[in-house]
Amino acid sequence: MFQRVISAPLVAAAVLSLAACEAPAAKTETVSGSVIYRERMALPPGAEVSVQLVDVSRADAPSITLAETTIQPKSQVPIPYVLSYDPARIESGHSYALQARISDQGKLLFINTTHHPYVPGEAKQADILVERTR
């Protein structure tokens, strides 16, 4: 019994000291802006907006998604977004772009049809124009 009394405080102290050694949270960068479209129409109530930061360096391969956020808009355009990403995943000499799409119940309604280049660490704000799919 004496051992239990002594060992319990020692275990608690060890757990607390290990918790203090936890690695610091990873640094994140953010880019924000608005997803916009020119068509004069309202989005359906269940629409979702997806914004991605992608590595588009390799012309012969699909882009690599580095970060993504999905928004359920509370209003019509412009639709604000904030996208957080890990700067440690950014590689020198690579090219990056922002992509956006709007869908409703899995059906694609809008997508960006032009390239929206993004230079991580430099630009903090970027609007993305999307066009209606046919």
From TrEMBL:
Pfam families: YscW
Keyword annotations: Plasmid, Signal
Superkingdom in the source lineage: Bacteria
Listed name of the protein: Lipoprotein
Signal peptide: 1-25
